[in-house]
Amino acid sequence: MNKDQCDDIVTTVNDPLDLTGMALSAGSQKLFYMNIRNTTTTPKQRRRTRMNLAMTQYTIFNINGETPTSAQVWKNIRGFLWKSLHGTYKIGEFWDKIPNWEHRGNCGLCGALELMEHILIECESPASRTIWRAAKDLWHKRESNWPDIRFGTILGCNLATFRNAKGKKKLGSIRLFKILVLESAHLIWKLRCERTIKFGGDKDKYHSKTEILNRWIHAMNMRLKFDWLLTNSMRYGKKALKIEMVLQTWSSVLQNEDNLPDNWIRKSEVLVGMAPRHPPGRNR
Question: Whose CB among 13, 180, 191, 280 lies 3.0–4.6 Å from 127's, allowing a Cys bridge?
Fold first, then answer.
């Protein structure tokens, strides 16, 4: 049957059903990832991050004589240092945002605002003083010039460079400095966490200077042992550490080094050149 008038048929789609974009089944992970990267705006850098980054660049300039780029700093930083540079640890100003817990933002030893810089450098705690003195003493067994340890020095220790009189890089010293600074800073942080969390601020349980020094010596000996184990090319293949690099790193800082063979890698009794201390007491 013919109609004199055509029906007015609505062909539009309701908004809730009007889908845009590509169906998931029609795309690939690579395609979706590229589009997300292209449409995502770069997040604004935090103020604490900008301050720590500038501090790192300044202190590395004082050591190397040239300022590293931001990309170079980020490329050579990871783990503990990455979080410290970003200021993501729950210390200091973090507690200002939590009612009734503001007191946790202050140092349990001196009452100052407890930022990472304060914990590692500024606080006159036995841990900080003892550990940095031990690191300096071990370094002086090999090198005469110990850089001024600031917060930026710690954050940028992977970029520090040392050269001989001819301007050639001293690869062993560069690596040793990085190990000394990283292991020392991380141990200071761990001891602070033990004081605050494990001991609950009970000063009677705080670490003695002897215990702190022995913990540091143990940490350095463990790092030396790891280096020794990582030279095993049978297990690690191309990723194994080169024996020459390990020998260069620890040269001049070992115990009884004059009595060691030129290649001491396989001698498991080798230790760094500082003996553990014993607390005073009977039969000691």
Answer: 191
Scanning 111-169, the segments in alpha helix (DSSP H) are: 116-117, 126-140, 151-155
CA distance 170 to 165: 10
Q: What angle do CA 254, 258, 176 make, to 5 degrees?
A: 30
What six digits make up the tokens of 28?
């690939």
- Write out the two tokens for 231: 């030279």
Two tokens at 228? Answer: 């020794």
Dihedral, 203, 209, 213, 214 alpha carbons, nearest 10: -70
Which DSSP letter does residue 255 get?
A: T
Q: Is the CA virtual torsion 11, 16, 17, 18 positive or negative?
A: positive
pLDDT along the chain (284 residues), means of 10: 71 68 80 79 75 80 81 75 88 90 89 93 92 95 92 92 92 94 95 91 88 94 88 87 91 83 72 67 50
Q: Are 255 and 270 in contact, with CB atoms under 8 Å apart?
A: yes
Cα(264)–Cα(260) distance, integer angstroms: 6
Q: Tens digits of per-residue pLDDT, 164-193?
A: 999 999 999 999 999 999 999 999 999 999
Closest CA to 77 of 58, 52, 94: 52
